[in-house]
Amino acid sequence: MRITVLAAAAALVLTGTPVALADAGVPRIDWKACGPEHPGFECASVKVPLDYDNPRGATTSVALARKPATDQAHRIGSLFLNPGGPGGSGVDFALRRGETISANLQGRFDVVGFDPRGISRSDPLHCFASEEDLAKFFDGVPGFPYQEAQERPYFDRYRSLGPECRDDQTIARHMSTADVARDMDLLRRAVGDRKISYMGFSYGSFLGATYANLFPNNIRALVVDGVLNPELWSSGRQVESDRIATKEEFREFLRTCDEAKCVFGPNSEKRWNALLTSVRAKPIQLGDQVYTYDAVINAAIGAMYNPRDWPATAGLFDQLSDASSSLSVAAEPDYDNSFDAYNGNVCADIEFPRAFEAYRATARYAAAGSEFGPAWWWGNAACANWPVNHDRFTGPWRTRTNAPVLVVGNHFDGVTDFRGAQAVNRQIAGSRLLAYAGWGHTAYGLSKCASDYTNAYLLNGTLPPVGTVCPANPNPFLPTAEAAAEPLYQPVRR
Known about the structure:
This protein has 16 helices and 16 strands. By secondary structure, the chain is an alpha/beta fold.
C-alpha cells in the first residue's frame, strides 16, 4: 500500500457497554486445499453477519487460510493472525509466514489467517473502477503536502474519497474494528476453540485490544506486538505519537550510522538536514528516478519498519546528497484494495475533523514535533467526508481478561512507539509487558529473545518475568548485523 505519511454474534457495543443479541449461528468452515502453489495449506470462505444488530439478516464473506497443526497428537487449537494495516491480508500473511510460525510453535497450532471484512478476498471495498482510476487519484498530488500551496488541493482530493467509497457499497458501512473482532470471535467458535489464541502486529494490536475489551472472558493467549495506544487511535489523536515516534527512531538511525562509520556519516544529522533543505527547494534527479521532498521523507519512514534496510537507505541518502537536481515525475502505484480498505476501516473507527482549517492546524502541530509528523497526518483527510460506523468501539479501554495478555514493544519503534505498549499494559489489568531494547517495528522474528518469550507464552501460557527487557541486536550498520533475524511482520502501514 502507498504510505501517506498504517461475542461475534452475542454483543453489540454502542457506548462501551455490551448488549446481548440473538445468536447469529456458528458457520461451518469447508476447508479445501489452497492449490499447488501453496502445498500444505487449506483455504475457505465463510458467511458472517453484515450487521450484528441484525445477526440473522444480510451476510458478508470472510476468507481464511490455515496451516494445519503438524503435531496433531499435541494440538492446542488455532492461532489467529493479523498482520496490520488496516488493510493487510491475513490470508497472504498466513500463506507467506505460516510455515515459520508453525515451526516456531512446534506444529501444535493450526495457524489461521483471515482477511478482515472489506479487505482483499473478503468482500473487498473498491473505491475505484480500475487500476487506472486509482493512478489518476494520485496524479498531481504529493505523498503528503509539504508546501502551503499543496495543502488545499491535497485535502480536497482526499476528502472526495468519502462519497466515492461509500455510495452503493454496503460493506463500506460495516468495516469497524469492533465488527472485525465480532467476526473473529465467531471464527473462534467455528474452528471449535473454547478460548481464542491470537497474535496481532501493528494495527493488529488495536484489533487485539478491541477483542480483549469486547470478549474479556474468551482468551486463552493474546499477543500484541508493535502496539498502538487504543485511546489515541480511536479518538483520532494518534498524531500525538506520530509527530515524535519516527523522529526518535530516526535519530537512532543517524547515531548508529555515525558509530559504525556508514556511508552517510560521519556527520549524518548535518547531511540529513542539508538534504531536506535541498530537496524541499528542488527535486533531486538520481539516475532515471526523481526524488521529491515527500519521497525522501517517506523513504526514511519506510526504513524505520526494519533495521535491515538501514544500510541501503543510508546509501540512498548518500547518493541523493551528492546528486544534482531536476524536475519531478510522479510514479503510479500498483492497484489492490489496500488503500481503499485502510480508509474504509480507519474512517469507520475514527471521527476526524471535517474542516480544512482543522487539518492545516494539526499539520502545523505535527510538523512542530518532527519533519515526519505531517507525513503521517495528512492522509486522514480521506475521512473528512466519511461518517463513522455506529457499531464502532471507542472505549473505555480498561478491562481485565480471564487470562493475561502479552504486550510486546520496541524501545525505538518509529511506527508504533513504546509508549503505546506501556499504555496497553496499564489498560489491560494483569497483562505483562515485554520490551525489546532495539529498533524497528514489531519484535517477533527480529529479536530471538522476544520471539522465545512469545512462543513460550503461546504454547504454555508462561509469561516473561516482570520488567524483562530483551537486549538490542548489533548495530544495523555493522557487518555482524547482516545475519540478524528478520521480523515476520511486513510493512502494511500500521
